[in-house]
Amino acid sequence: MPRRQEPVAVVGMSCRFPGADGLDAFWRLLISGSEAIGPAGGRRAGRRDGGYLDDVEHFDAEFFRMPAPEAAATDPQQRLLLELAWHALEDSRTTPESLSRDAVGVFVGNCADDYALIGRAAQIATAYTMTGTGRAFLANRLSHFLGFTGPGLTVDTGQSSSLAALHQALQSLAAGECSAALVAGAQLNLAAEGDDAVQALGALSPRGRCHTFDSRADGIVRGEGAGALVLKPLERALADGDRIYCTVLGSAMNSDGGRTGLTAPSAEAQRAVLSAACHRAGVAPEDVSYVELHGTGTALGDPVEASALGAVHGPGRPSDFPLRVGSVKTNIGHLEGAAGIAGFIKTALALHHGELPASLNYREPNPAIDLEAHRLRVCAARGPWPRRPEPPLAGVSSFGLGGTNCHVVLGGHSARTAPASAETGTGHPVPVLVSGPSGPAMRRHAAAFADALDPARRGTGAAPAALADIGLSSVTTRAPLHHRGAVVASDLDELVARLRTLADGPHPDASGVVEGTRGEGLTAYLFPGQGAQQPGMGRRLHKEFEVFARTFDTACAAMEPALGASLADVLWGREDVPGRHQHTQPALFALEAALYRLFESWGMAPDLLLGHSQGEITATHVAGVLSLEDAALFVARRCRLIGTLPPGGAMIAVQAAESEARELLGPGLGPVSVAAVNSPQSLVLSGEEKATLAAAAHFERLGRRTRRLRIAVAGHSPLMEPIQDELLALAEQLTWHPPTGPRIVSAVTGRPVGPGEIDRPEHWPHHLRATVRFGPALRTAHELGARFFVEIGPGRGLVNMAAETVDLGEALFSAPMATDDEVAGVAGTAAAAHVFGAPIDPVAVHGPHARRTGLPLYPFRREPFWLDTAPATPPPAEPAERWSGDPYELVVSSTLRILGLSPDAELDLHESFNALGLDSRMAVTLRTVLTRATGRSMPTTLLFDHPTPGSLIEALESDAPL
Questions:
Q1: What span, in angstroms and rounded, lies between the C-alpha atoms of 662 and 657?
Q2: What are the φ and ψ backbone dihedral angles of 640, each rounded to 5 degrees?
């Protein structure tokens, strides 16, 4: 006898069955006692009544990166399984990437290849025919698209195929071949010849309905559909905190052998498979409450199945605890290769909801079946799940026409999910993420998300999840696709409104809305200096975030002896910080250090640090050069030294290039200096008041903008020289360490900091006097790969400088405190990090009490693809029309045409050609088109050397050899 199996948890499911597109719709169909048998439509109009899916030719090719010719050549069963696999993973509240950290197996049951039959009959064969219609690719394509490296196989045992695939998955999990499994079954009845074959066998019901175990049983009605399951070992599912629909306790599979005719069922074989499954599950057969029958409603098959059930489950069963039985075939027809998974999903939902749906078309028992003697009862009406035993037990049977039998035993699971977080506490604004393969797809996703959450559309169903749970789940349970949007909301109404704003189109200035494409590059934090201060800054963050408050309070405690006052009282009391120079710089330092530590606690570690003037001291601290206490003391005493200087200086922001200012000021040291170079056309003049005003007036006469800064002392000018020696003495009292944190780009040199540069006291007197070369530092950061710039301080002056200096359409900028609501501001920066793809800890952002919850499934945008709807090969290697000389137009139009897409379709210039769907044949065609259009020689490695449309356009714009 086979050994007992370890329990396996069903953590995700999806389905598309007749009359039911999705789990909720399927459960409503079942529990309402409805059927979905009717006439075929569309291409199949005129066929016999059956269980049909609508629009089986429709598919979201864009989402699955499949060019139109390939989509048209690919069996709709493959296409349907791709969508259902994605939804099953979403339903399991995980992503392909997180699940596939270990090997994941893919097991698909199927016994139909009508699309291949149609293609052969039409004599259509393309380069995609083998991969599009070969049955092995039902599983192989799923493994490939999802990146799953465990076993991948398609199982064909006839009508038991999908339950046999589940059995194979359980064996693979038990053997350690995979740590999780995706199991699916599919059946599409695309060709009328299949109806004729079943009719010739004598298996079709003349009445067009399945009458399982009923006296009217006279055959099957064909159905179609597909379902998918995500399985994990129970121990792992519990450790991961998964929602569990039910458990699979054991399974068995055998064959009729030669006991009967080839297509006649064997009671002996069925008894054996039922007994073996119960043994492997470790359950007594008499404790099983319900069995989902193979239940075809045939005069021969039903009595054999009933006798086998009675023989195994009847002995020892109390008379008041009959074995309930039913068949989903009475609702949706016989799904043949997908019949087993349809019955399994029905039973799993029944266990999950604690209710048994009715088995339809049952009026009086088949006279060949003695229900009482077998201790059986047909579930003729909806009812509660029998309360004996606990946990409830169920079985699912599926028998192949050729004799392959399969049975699985399921168990209920009471701890279905972790409790949702309560909608109480601070009510922090939280980021919620949506995404799509393109901008329009992302907006459709946002619109569908808003519709699902909108109370006006949701109706009177279950209450929505807590906002923190929605935010956490949007990040952790949904794969982040290339085009991303994020909104920040404090309540459900605001979330719905901002999702609709995101869905309506680009709104760069919309509050709480961020969008963009996945970034490729580094994150740079920008620390402002004096002039960025704001009244009341940091008050809300100090109140709401313990990490911020702890760092801020520690810095203040180190500075207050030198300041002679409570910095918090000055900041948030009756006194105005901007007018009190001696407190401005210490306040900025404490705020910046605290904000940095808050983001650090959220997992948002930068790659590069840039500081403007005093902000470079904060950068030095977070890089590990100075402790918080030493850095705070240095800032406070440096500030007091600056305050001892006599008045009479001025600092003026001027719209001018550095070369213009140097030419005006001359080579001498003079009373005026270029204090800061912030961007190519923005600098600050600093020095003696009269001379500085005169220099600024020169540029005003040229029509340039000027603005005097609210700063009493002329920093980074000759007026700083009298205190340089004292500052050196102060620096020598501190403990300096080599930098160990993120790399610093110096605003003194405009280059990355070298060894022994900022970690020695002699640097800082020079730093006080030297020009702040922030613009050059920004360009260096960009050259090093920085593409996400975050201002760690009040205002947005530095990110504005960055946008003016390095924004080439590929960078993202965030200023968390440039808003009236600081808490929403930091949540907005977390949202921007999600959009860019920067590292972040979503649990830390959304709070330790947030839990994963169910979210609306991705809304596929399906278009029709059939053998006759797209060219079988890439279009000829000729430009669509005479080239205008514009590389952008040539690359975009040619790529869209070769992909079989509309000329108006959106093409992501930063996505790789491979990800866009170009295969090797298409790549050769594109190279040939470009060569003929431009007359330029192009290497065979053209798309390898320039792997995105954007990089190829840049190369064609250059005269350099390709």
A1: 9
A2: -70, -35
Percent of the chain with pLDDT over 90: 77
For the stretch 440-483, pLDDT in tens is: 999 999 999 999 998 877 655 566 789 999 999 999 999 999 99
pLDDT tens digits, 326-337: 999 999 999 999
Tell me the C-alpha distance between 378 and 212, whole Å.
9
Cα separation, 403 vs 243, whole angstroms: 36
Q: What is the dihedral of CA 375, 378, 384, 386, to 10 degrees?
A: 10
pLDDT of residue 422: 54
* Dist. CA 809–CA 319, nearest whole Å: 75
State the Cα angle at 351 between 220 and 330, rounded to 5°: 15
More confident position, 244 or 532:
244
- Amino acid making up residue 12: G
Q: Dig out the tokens for 720 from the structure.
A: 């700083």
Strands 180-187 and 225-233, how do they pair?
A: antiparallel
Which DSSP string corresponds to 710-737?
Answer: S-SS-TTSGGGGGGHHHHHHHHHTS---
Give the C-alpha separation, 685 to 687, whole Å: 7
Contact predicate 61/916, CB 8 Å: no
Write the burial class of residue 783 (CB in 10 Å: 0-12 exposed, 13-18 middle, 19+ buried).
Answer: exposed
Q: What are the pLDDT digits (tens) for 543-566?
A: 999 999 999 999 999 998 888 878
Q: Do the beta carbons of residue 361 and residue 64 sit within 8 Å?
A: no
Does the bond joining 389 to the residue before it have cis omega, within 30 degrees of 0? yes
CA dihedral 639, 640, 645, 646 (to 10 degrees): 110
Nearest-angstrom CA–CA distance, 303 and 922: 57
pLDDT class of 419 with cuts at 50, 70, 90: low
Is 249 exposed, middle or buried, given 0-12, 13-18 or 19+ CB atoms closer than 10 A? buried
Query: CA angle, corner 330, sides to 326 and 332, nearest 5?
Result: 125
CB neighbours of residue 233 within 10 Å: 18
pLDDT at 577 over 50: no
Amino acid at 668: G
Handedness of CA 161, 163, 165, 171 (dihedral sign): negative
pLDDT for residue 2:
52
Residue found under tokens 């609501």: 821
